[in-house]
Write a structure and sequence with these properties.
The chain has 335 residues and is of the alpha+beta class. It has twelve helices and twelve strands. The two termini are 17 Å apart.
């Protein structure tokens, strides 16, 4: 009862967004006038109080140690976190937006420059698409207006593409190693970045080449906003051929690779949030996973499960230090 909400609240304080991708208004309880989430973070003996609050009809506000933070982007990366949850299956089953979000959430926590380039590009993309739609609606075309936007897009687009390719290249061998460990060396898994514009090709040329196509479709047809990740298992597309256990192992390895990539780049351990990860995993894969986490000395992990005995037995068998909390009728009980 309420287990996922606890983990999502931690994620919200770290990244100012729900892991489930819900809009902020959906985070306010039904018929409640506001939301407020606060937490205290200990980073090597330095304590920080983080508060996010929002009236139902207003924008959310962020405070750190009592000081308002004007730009939410300035907070991203201060308290890195990775969450693994049952709805991660959308990474495979849904469209490419979820897979781009995986890339962007990772890179934004280690590079303020990447986050700024992403914000800039998305704003320009929104303006460009609105302009293309307006041209079609008004039945006229003003090339100078389009050119004014097009001149600004190549710089952030190139920066985004460079970082994404570098991240996937770095994560790929780590991901394969993690998948092998979790699955017990049963299958071979791989990931790759799929982009509809060639690496290091001038994005200005891409935009110019697609002018007619973009005017006809009323949208920008190529760019970072269309990037995707290819997931392969034993040479076959993951989505079509993976079993439930293989799919779960793949997604776990993908998130743990994200965690390890963040840890390497920031020089510290992010918070790891594991929600109902034992569901659909056989006992062997569960032991492999827990052993892997303890072997890598992850500093702080929050794990939820519906069966206390199962969870406690596995963790205790490795001699790990742990605490158990039970949620009952909305109250958290420590034992």
């Amino acid at each position: 009862m309420g287990k996922t909400n606890i983990l999502d609240a931690i994620h919200y304080l770290c990244l100012t967004k729900s892991h489930r991708g819900l809009p902020d208004k959906a985070m306010v309880q039904h018929q409640a006038p506001f939301l407020r989430v606060d937490g205290r973070f200990d980073t090597d003996g330095s304590y920080h109080k983080v508060v996010i609050k929002m009236m139902a009809d207003k924008r959310k506000e962020l405070e750190v140690n009592g000081t308002p933070i004007a730009r939410l982007a300035d907070h991203i990366g201060k308290f890195p976190a990775v969450m693994i949850a049952p709805d991660d299956v959308t990474l495979v089953q849904d469209g490419s937006e979820e897979r781009r979000r995986y890339l962007d959430t990772t890179l934004s926590q280690i590079s303020p420059q990447y986050l700024q380039h992403l914000i800039t590009f998305n704003n320009l993309l929104k303006q460009r698409n609105a302009l293309l739609k307006n041209f079609a609606a008004q039945r006229y075309f003003e090339p100078l207006l389009l050119e004014a936007i097009d001149r600004q897009m190549p710089l952030p687009a190139a920066a985004i593409q460079t970082e994404r390719y570098a991240m996937v290249a770095n994560i790929q061998p780590l991901f394969q190693e993690l998948y092998q460990t979790i699955s017990g060396h049963r299958e071979v898994a791989s990931i790759a970045l799929d982009s509809d514009w060639p690496e290091k090709q001038d994005y200005a040329a891409i935009l110019e080449e697609n002018h007619s196509k973009d005017r006809y479709s009323e949208r920008t047809s190529a760019g970072p906003h269309r990037d995707d990740l290819l997931f392969v298992l034993d040479g076959q597309p993951l989505k079509k051929f993976a079993s439930q256990g293989q799919l779960k192992s793949f997604l776990l390895a993908l998130r743990l690779a994200q965690f390890e990539y963040l840890r390497t780049r920031i020089g510290g351990s992010p918070i790891l949030l594991l929600d109902d990860i034992f569901d659909k995993l056989d006992s062997l894969r569960v032991r492999h996973l827990v052993g892997l986490l303890l072997e890598r000395q992850v500093q702080q992990i929050f794990i939820t499960d519906t069966q206390r005995n199962r969870l406690e037995e596995v963790v205790a068998s490795f001699g790990a230090v742990y605490k158990v909390f039970e949620v009952e009728n909305g109250t958290i009980l420590e034992s």
